[in-house]
Design brief:
The complex is a heterodimer.
Chain A lengths: L7 E12 L6 E12 L3 E5 L6 H8 L7 E6 L2 E2 L7 E4 L11 H11 L7 H4 L3 H12 L15 H13 L5 E5 L7 H18 L2 E5 L3 H7 L2 E5 L6 E6 L14 H13 L13
Parallel strand pairs in A: 3-8, 3-9, 6-7, 7-8
Antiparallel strand pairs in A: 1-2, 1-4, 4-5, 9-10
Helix pairs in contact in A: 2-4, 2-5, 5-6, 7-8
Chain B lengths: L4 H25 L9 H46 L1 H16 L6 H8 L3 H25 L3 H9 L4 H39 L4 H10 L3 H29 L9
Helix pairs in contact in B: 2-3, 2-5, 2-7, 2-8, 2-9, 3-5, 4-5, 5-7, 7-8, 7-9, 8-9
The chains are: A alpha/beta, B mainly alpha.
InterPro entries (chain B): MetI-like, MetI-like_sf
Protein name (chain B): ABC transporter permease
Family (chain B): Belongs to the binding-protein-dependent transport system permease family.
């Protein structure tokens, strides 16, 4: 099934989610069709409470759809095991582990790596972690404790942890939301470099339209709750993209067009459980 | 951490001045050694009776350690079970609080009834007196794990056991060691109570006999032995704590 990077990776067929169940439940996601290709970098943008995070929960199998089906590699979700890497807004590093051990954690948990964890933790796995840390510029901090890092360094570590086990699918839930503008742009670069090198399929949830336009190859705009996809467009800027791109007219036009698609309905904000 | 030399020796200074003041107060006010012996009298009594004290101290140390170890194993197990489930937490808590509210001296006669006087009641008392603080602390440590940490594990499809082993247990270690330091001193209290009530061996029993023959300095020598053992174990667990759970203090280990 492996070809030019456009084969069907994950397919949503009429997938809807209603929290609470029954007729009086809260509809979080209207029945949605969505096809994700291997190697896609999809950004989900939309107002608060539009079901962006619900989609992440669905694909990571934390949540089951109320209606419809999700297929992975042509079979129902769960039938074919696949690896997920996840990073949230809070870096949530384990304070009792060094940076290196934090990054190594997925190798201890995820098949098939965990079967050989004891044998390889000091050799192959360690080299692998160090290579990744080297790439994001954290190798000098491999033996540091997480609380000794700055916010940006913590998120770099978090990204490494989400990628170390070579996930089929990388899920990013506003990973740079808590960072200042400069650090955020630095991390855009880091993430783009890692993506170009490893080409995981990525779903990025973000509030930041510039972030979406800069990083993604495809942007889905979602409506306010109950969420549905109101716009689905490809982003054609050549890679690697440089940060100066954000000042170019085409980029600004794209961001403005996206902004126009997003309708804010403040009264649904309190429902933003996602 | 940089500490001035004064800060390092401050605890020792306090202890020394405490004993010096005690000594001087006894001398100045002419207090009889039958009421409150002077520290020097206590120390000389200790050396005089050392061969006689030694087997008692050994016995107390033995019962306390066995009881404390049992208490740690049981407390840790219960704490993990209770902390892992909200239902268990809410269900078991009232019973635990009830049991812990019972004065432990009151259960010694029951143990004596069941197992006879001697070593076993002392071990059991030492064990049950230290279980509760351990259970509460470990359960709290596990129950208060940040949901984000669990989310990370769940996205990796970790099992409940893996989450407990990699997140819950390490997360509760600072709580566990905080409770150990309290528990080990409580264990001494438990075993000495049991020895006082129902045993013919141990420091508690020795102190009881000494006080009935008005050998007050020997009673205080017994207290000194207990205090020394208590400080010793507290120090040991502090050192282990710093190695195992030092991350909680945000200090380089």
């Amino acid at each position: 099934m492996k070809e030019n990077g456009t084969e069907k990776f994950m397919v949503f067929e009429g997938v809807g989610v209603t929290y609470g169940g029954g007729a009086d439940g809260t509809e979080a996601l209207k029945p949605t069709d969505l096809t994700l290709s291997k190697g896609d970098f999809l950004a989900l943008v939309g107002p608060s409470g539009c079901g962006k995070s619900t989609i992440l929960k669905l694909v990571s199998e934390v949540l089951a759809p109320t209606t419809g089906n999700i297929f992975f590699a042509g079979r129902e979700l769960g039938a074919t095991p696949f690896r997920v890497g996840m990073a949230f807004q809070s870096a949530s590093l384990l304070p009792w582990m060094t940076v290196r051990d934090n990054v190594m954690l997925p190798l201890k948990i995820v098949k098939p790596f965990k079967t050989e964890f004891r044998a390889k933790r000091k050799g192959e796995y360690r080299d692998r972690v160090d290579a990744l840390l080297e790439k994001v510029g954290l190798i000098d901090f491999a033996d540091s404790n997480p609380w000794e890092l700055s916010g940006g360094m913590m998120q770099r570590t978090n990204l490494c942890r989400a990628l170390i086990h070579e996930p089929d699918l990388l899920l990013l839930d506003e990973p740079f939301g808590a960072l200042d503008q400069f650090t955020r742009e630095e991390l855009w670069q880091t993430l783009q470099d890692l993506w170009i090198e490893r080409r995981p399929t990525v779903i990025l949830v973000t509030h930041d339209l510039r972030e979406a336009a800069y990083l993604a190859s495809r942007i889905c705009v979602m409506s306010p709750r109950p969420g549905r996809i109101v716009d689905d467009s490809a982003v054609e800027f050549p890679r690697p993209r440089h940060i100066d791109l954000v000042f170019e007219p085409d980029f600004v036009t794209l961001v403005q067009r996206l902004r126009g698609k997003i309708v804010h309905t403040p009264n649904t904000r309190k429902l933003d459980a996602a | 951490m940089t500490q001035s030399p004064l800060r390092k020796i401050a605890p020792a200074l306090l202890i020394i001045s405490f004993f010096v003041l005690w000594e001087m107060a006894c001398l100045v006010f002419g207090i009889s050694h039958l009421v409150l012996p002077r520290p020097t009298q206590i120390v000389s009594t200790f050396f005089e009776y050392a061969p006689a004290i030694w087997p008692h101290a050994q016995q107390t140390l033995y019962t306390t350690m066995v009881g404390f170890s049992a208490g740690v194993v049981i407390g840790l197990t219960l704490g993990v079970l209770i902390g892992s489930s909200k239902l268990a937490y809410e269900t078991a808590y009232p019973l635990l609080v009830g049991i812990s509210s019972i004065p432990k001296v009151a259960v010694v006669p029951i143990f004596v009834l069941w197992f006879g006087a001697g070593t076993v009641p002392a071990i059991l008392t030492a064990a049950i007196i230290c279980i509760f603080p351990i259970v509460v602390n470990v359960a709290t440590g596990i129950a208060t794990v940040e949901p984000e940490l669990e989310d990370v594990m769940r996205s990796l499809k970790a099992t409940k056991l893996e989450i407990l082993w990699n997140i819950g247990l390490p997360r509760s270690m600072p709580y566990f060691f905080a409770s150990l330091k309290v528990a080990v001193t409580l264990s001494f209290v438990g075993s000495v109570i049991a020895e006082t009530v129902a045993s013919n061996r141990g420091v508690g029993n020795m102190m009881l006999i000494a006080s009935s023959s008005f050998n007050v300095p020997l009673v205080f020598a017994g207290l000194m032995v207990l205090a020394t053992m208590g400080i010793g174990f507290y120090t040991v667990f502090s050192l282990i704590e710093r190695r195992v759970a030092g991350w909680a203090m945000r200090k380089a280990v």
